[in-house]
Design goal:
Elements: H1 5-20, H2 25-39, E1 44-50, E2 55-62, E3 73-75, H3 79-87, E4 91-93, E5 115-123, E6 126-135, H4 143-161, E7 181-184, E8 186-189, E9 192-199, H5 214-238, H6 241-244, H7 248-258, H8 261-271, H9 277-292, H10 298-319, E10 334-338, H11 343-347, E11 354-359, H12 367-375, E12 379-381, H13 386-389, E13 395-399, E14 404-407, H14 411-433, E15 448-453, H15 461-465, E16 470-474, H16 476-481, H17 488-502, E17 507-510, H18 538-543, H19 545-558, E18 563-568, H20 574-593, E19 601-608, H21 617-623, E20 626-629, H22 631-638, H23 646-649, H24 657-672, E21 677-679, H25 687-696, E22 700-703, H26 705-716, H27 720-732, H28 741-750
Parallel strand pairs: 9-10, 10-11, 11-12, 15-16, 15-22, 16-17, 17-18, 18-19, 19-20, 20-21
Antiparallel strand pairs: 1-2, 1-6, 2-3, 4-5, 5-6, 7-14, 8-12, 9-13, 13-14
Cofactor: Mg(2+)
GO molecular function: phosphoenolpyruvate-protein phosphotransferase activity
Family: Belongs to the PEP-utilizing enzyme family.
């Protein structure tokens, strides 16, 4: 086998001639394997294509028994071909039959061939098939020969992706490119959305793969690399981080990888095999993605994103295309597909046309999840390799309730989800009918239902749900979607608008809750071992009093003549609250000194979310004007279980005895001090959890607007007194049950309470 890099150009030119010939798809494929075998001096060349059922089918061969074409199949992971498909790595063997994965197929006649070289046919990191060459003699294949076959496999990938082999598929054996995919991720925002894919960062289409002049292509690649490096350097030097939406530390990582000689040398080598500069970038990106997607190390997975971003920058420079879809281009029934997105990017799209969001990253408490819930857009995160698996225009179903995504669904699956969407719509209509009904339990206990908000667009939900107010207004969202630190005047303008829309209904403003996973793009990011336990929320406010004072000043000015409620997050000790209260009182005194109108009343409260505060409840209930329980953080800290870590996030149930006893202690101590208490965490918006909280004694809840209807339907059917008796009895026992959820579900069924 010749396999020298110099011979690759000849091979690619011959392949291009075959691709352009006016012949049938099967004849074209048959000619291609002959050309590959002849050029590489191989006695066998075979192409296996991945089918929608996950098996690999022999589509063409030179050297093996041709009667085996379209008859020989193997499962992913079966045989040497299946091993290559599952690992997405080349495999070169001097004695194939001695390999433990070797699988004998008598119909092919391959038992006489000892040497074996196979490479995956990759596109966007996804395996589309396997390309194999074989020889009778035992021999070692060189790196150049592997390289040559990988380059050829890229041409095959583009032919498969273009649909050139669809006509060869037998009924029930469709090519895997178009196969339906069911992927399970993480719920970001509830709801069901059906539509067609729109890529937030669309893949750059490469139409010219084979180079006429490799030397010229190297020059183009070098120029694009220089342009990319210069652009990154300029971004860092002028500090224009917010404008691009990329944090400074990410840009520094980009700069490091942009100068990585190993990555750049690899692209130059691929260009010299006969590919154009853009095809070489695509080839290296696809190979790297296939390898790193199979890594379990989160650091290595994160580096994949860095290399993806760099490769996309290079491709856009080489092809000369802009990135992204403008809101004017957004079609009807769009499902937005992205690796990751910031809240500002999502807000740029026309929500009237947006039916769902699918992300490779993002957890339920991420910024994008908060905004998606506020907009009422179904969203699912942690869908591995979504941007490679989903093509623009593909039919996609987003099931935000189950955390599932259906890609290119079968008609029966699509019809089932249409029925689910219609059922959901009927339920929502039933909930809307409850809008004017009081939130009172069956035995006459009044419950206050409020909404969580963070953007002005959320405030319309007050009227839509007839909620009694806003129990949690996340002020940090204004900071997150802005391109610079909002001024006091800009903050005041938002708070003015919010209070105006509230029209007398109470609004509880939470002061800036940043840090941990909430990093502002225009602020320096601190590397911390445990960000959730680090420098965040009120800790930043007390250490940077000018920041907290500016926000308090804006809130007090906006609340002139109104009843103002301000809540402090992440308070760990009573002393922290007292220090913050002193700062607020100073700002109030300055307001009065300057002759500015003050709020008609001011109540300063605390979020109970740090377990240490559970041991100062009598003191904090005396000092604070109100308490609000942030169950998200409280439970993850209480059980030492990171809610973003799938391995432990569901290990402990907040409806366990330990969690419920902690929550009961809070409401009991608040009652003793006559201190109002509200639940504003996720627990307060889930019917069965809210049932338990009502049974504990909670009477005020703040939740997403979509949760108001289900929670109201639940509580109107609930006998709160009976539920309290049962729950007290369960909490008084010591049977060691991991969770009281099954008992609560049985109680709901007994009382015919919808949960």
């Amino acid at each position: 086998m010749r396999g020298a890099l110099g011979g690759s150009g000849v091979l690619l030119r011959r392949l291009r001639e075959v691709m352009a010939a006016p012949v049938s798809p099967q004849e074209r494929l048959d000619r291609l394997v002959v050309v590959i075998a002849g050029n590489l001096v191989a006695e066998v060349c075979s192409v296996y294509v991945l089918r929608e059922d996950g098996s690999l089918e022999l589509y063409a061969t030179e050297g093996l028994n041709r009667e085996a074409v379209h008859l020989t199949t193997m499962r992913a992971g079966e045989g040497l071909v299946g091993l290559i498909a599952s690992e997405a790595e080349p495999l070169a063997l001097s004695d194939a039959q001695s390999h433990p994965a070797f699988s004998y197929r008598p119909e092919t006649g391959e038992e006489i061939y000892r040497s074996f070289l196979g490479v995956p046919i990759l596109r966007g990191g996804a395996v589309m098939g396997v390309l194999v060459v074989q020889n009778r003699a035992s021999r070692l294949y060189s790196e150049d020969e592997v390289e040559s076959l990988q380059t050829t496999a890229m041409i095959m990938a583009e032919m498969i992706a273009a649909g050139g082999l669809k006509a060869l598929s037998k009924p029930g054996a469709t090519i895997g490119l178009d196969r339906p995919i069911h992927s399970i991720g993480t719920t970001l925002a509830d709801g069901v959305g059906l539509g067609h894919a729109v890529l937030h960062e669309p893949r750059v289409a490469i139409t010219n793969l084979i180079a006429e002049d490799p030397g010229r292509e190297v020059q183009r690649l070098e120029a694009a690399i220089a342009t990319m490096r210069l652009a990154i350097d300029e971004l860092i030097e002028r500090g224009d981080v917010a404008h691009t939406g990329e944090h400074r530390d990410v840009l520094e990582t980009f700069r490091m990888f942009a100068h990585d000689q190993g990555w750049l040398r690899r692209m130059r080598e691929v260009v010299m095999t006969g590919l154009t500069a853009e095809a070489a970038v695509e080839r290296v990106q696809s190979d790297t993605r296939a390898k790193m997607l199979r890594q379990t190390d989160p650091y290595l997975r994160e580096r994949l994103h860095d290399l993806d971003d760099l490769a996309n920058r290079l491709l856009r420079t080489l092809v000369g295309k802009s990135n992204g879809v403008t809101r004017e281009d957004l079609p009807e029934n769009a499902i937005l597909i992205a690796r990751s997105m910031g809240p500002a990017a999502l807000l740029d799209y026309d929500r009237r046309h947006l039916r769902g969001v699918v992300l490779e990253e993002g957890g339920p408490t991420s910024h994008i999840a908060i905004v998606a819930r506020a907009l009422g857009i179904p969203a699912v995160g942690e869908i591995a390799n979504a941007t490679a698996l989903i093509q623009a225009g593909d039919a996609v179903i987003v099931d935000g309730q189950a955390g599932e995504v259906q890609i290119r669904p079968q008609p029966d699956v699509e019809n089932a989800y249409k029925d689910k969407a219609r059922l959901r719509a009927r339920k929502q209509e039933q909930y809307r009918k409850l809008k004017t009904q009081p939130a009172v339990t069956k035995d006459g206990v009044e419950i206050q239902l409020q909404i969580n908000a963070g953007l002005l667009v959320d405030m319309a939900n007050l009227e839509e749900t007839n909620a009694s107010g806003v129990g949690l207004f996340r002020t940090e969202l204004q900071f997150m979607v802005a391109q610079h630190m909002p001024t006091t005047a800009e903050q005041q303008a938002l708070y003015d608008a919010v209070l105006k829309v509230a029209n007398g209904r109470p609004v509880t403003f939470r002061t800036l809750d940043i840090g941990g996973d909430k990093v502002l793009p225009y602020m320096e990011r601190l590397e911390e071992e445990n960000p959730a336990l680090g420098w965040r929320a009120i800790r930043i406010g007390l250490d940077r009093p000018r920041l907290l004072r500016a926000q308090v000043r804006a809130l007090l000015r906006a609340g002139a003549g109104c009843d103002m409620k301000i809540m402090l997050p992440m308070v760990a000790t009573v002393n922290e609250f007292l220090r913050a209260r002193m700062l607020v009182r100073r700002e109030l005194a300055m307001l009065e000194r300057d002759g500015r109108p003050a709020p008609a009343s001011l109540k300063l409260g605390v979020m109970v979310e740090v377990p240490s505060l559970l041991f100062e409840l009598p003191e904090i209930a005396r000092e604070a004007d109100f308490l609000s329980v942030g169950t998200n953080d409280l439970m993850q800290f209480l059980f030492a279980a990171d809610r973003e870590n799938k391995r432990v996030s569901d290990r402990f149930d907040p409806l366990s005895a330990a969690g419920l006893r902690a929550l009961r202690n809070i409401v009991d101590e608040a009652a003793k001090a006559d201190c109002p208490v509200t639940v504003c965490g996720e627990m307060g918006g889930k019917p069965i959890e809210t049932l338990a909280l009502i049974a504990l004694g909670y009477r005020s809840f703040s939740m997403s607007s979509a949760s108001i209807g289900p929670v109201k339907a639940m509580l109107r059917a609930l006998d709160a007194g009976k539920a309290r008796q049962r729950l007290d009895a369960w909490l008084g026992s010591s049977d060691g049950a991991a969770s009281l959820r099954p008992l609560l579900a049985a109680l709901a069924a007994e009382m015919k309470v919808p949960v």
